[in-house]
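Collaborator request, handled under Task 6.
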Amino acid sequence: AFQEATGKFSLQNANNTSKSIIVHYYLPDQFSDSSSVVMVLPGAGRNGDDYRDAWIESAKKYSLLVLSLEYPEYDYPGFWSYNLGGMIKNVNVETKSFSVNKDSSQWIFHDFDQVFEATKNKLGFSQNRYDLFGHSAGGQVLHRLALFGSSIKTRNIIAANSGWYTLPADTVPFPYGLKGLSSKQKEVGFDKPLTILLGEFDNADEQRGHLRRSPEVDIQGTHRLARGKYFYSTSKSIARKLSKKFNWKLLIAPNIGHDYKSISLEAADYLYSNNNLK
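Structure tokens returned to the collaborator:
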């Protein structure tokens, strides 16, 4: 039997051994072989401990093992290393110039299966799949995982309250679309189990969190709720034109703004109350 435990440990990144990921975990004492594992990606504050704590109530309720990842700023500087998953490098914020990191083994989308396996060995559980939840910057990482990653042990991906999106559109320049990448829209994983989770009040009145504004990104909308809806509807129409199976979902959580605690509770109920996604 497992004993209730809260803690953290550091893992060397298998693809780049000079970098480490910190895993903040919560293991409930009622965890068993039939329990679920959820991996959490925090917002731009990289505060994996706070995000883990936000899941503890749900972890007790649904017997979940929570693994909340912290990508330290010293190893993963700037929004390009985290929000954009390491897909760009040589970033100059002043001139807005960058180059695409063509070495996809350095993108962080590969990390999640590795973290899962390493934690499995450390804590000794037998589960083979896990769910992913990311909020704000973490949501940005996870919708890009659906576009560019190949995580094979993931069961559900929830990208919540992202600030902005990379559209699966060949005509829109990267990072707002796919133009300039070798990836093309016909290769996008529209069949992946991605849910875009949006707070009803993460709208023009919401002051929390930093929101990027520019002509390129404002095409998606001028607040997170609008941008999430735009990403979903645009993706759906692209998939339809390509005759691709489209498994992505859009979910709007009532009475919630840019609040990671409330949206975490919402995500847990969505994933685990009635097993409605399994």
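The cover message to the collaborator said: "The chain has a mean pLDDT of 94. The longest strand covers residues 5-12. Please let us know whether this matches your experimental observations."
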